[in-house]
Design a protein that fits this description.
The protein has 210 residues and is α/β, with parallel strands linked by helices. The chain has 7 helices and 11 strands. A hairpin with a 5-residue loop joins strand 6 and strand 7.
């Protein structure tokens, strides 16, 4: 049986783009997916859009939270897949993303897979591409940041549990802290996934995961 990918989608008042996010998950060539939507008690039509979509979440949580990372922890606690990621409610995945990512996990036996991101304008035109780099721990310490975008990263559930997950006491950068913990662990095997298998589109106002 193929391995399951748990996708956590944290959302608050994301009615404008969340249908596109769900469309992109629904259209994946790899179908063994656990979809977890964590809504922070939105006051717009977010829940109506989610409930009307052809792809229904396996887990839907809608309640007030203490911020995005609190929402992420709630979702990750419900994750049962061997592999995990989170994408925001205005993100999208390319149709073959999960197929290629899972193939990398399975053939290379790695703990973390990441790729590249594209930035687009409101018309959907790519205006900038950000390439992830598979730096070693020494180089990462030198640059003091994760050398790839969160939106392009996937990890094993085992690794998530090992690190303790996202630090919900932080208002920002808990994803960077989480990914740095993984990257600086000498036992971790990391792998880039190229050929546009993982891409993100975003503007200054929104990020859309392609």
């Amino acid at each position: 049986m193929s391995k399951t990918v748990s996708i956590i989608v944290p959302v608050y008042n994301g009615a404008t783009y969340i249908a596109e996010t769900l469309d992109s998950i629904y259209n994946q060539t790899y179908k063994n997916i656990q979809l977890i939507v964590v809504d922070g008690a939105s006051t717009d039509k977010t829940l109506d859009v989610v409930k009307a979509h052809k792809l229904q979440p396996h887990v839907l949580i809608s309640e007030k939270d203490k911020g995005m990372y609190d929402a992420l922890r709630k979702g990750c606690d419900k994750a049962t897949g061997e592999y995990m990621c989170y994408i925001n409610s205005d993100d999208r995945l390319l149709p073959t993303t999960l197929e290629k990512v899972v193939n990398k996990f399975e053939t290379e036996k790695c703990d973390l897979v990441f790729g590249d991101v594209n930035y687009i304008n409101e018309q959907g035109d790519v205006i900038f591409s950000y390439k992830g780099v598979n730096f070693g721990a020494k180089a990462i310490k030198e640059i003091c940041r994760v050398p790839f975008a969160q939106q392009s990263s996937f990890w094993t559930r085992e690794m998530y549990l090992k690190t303790g997950g996202f630090d919900s006491s932080l208002k920002y950068v808990a994803d960077s802290k989480f990914l740095l913990q993984i990257c600086l662990d000498p036992s971790v095997k990391r792998l880039m996934c190229r050929n546009r298998s993982v891409n993100t589109d975003c503007t200054a106002l929104r990020s859309r995961f392609l």
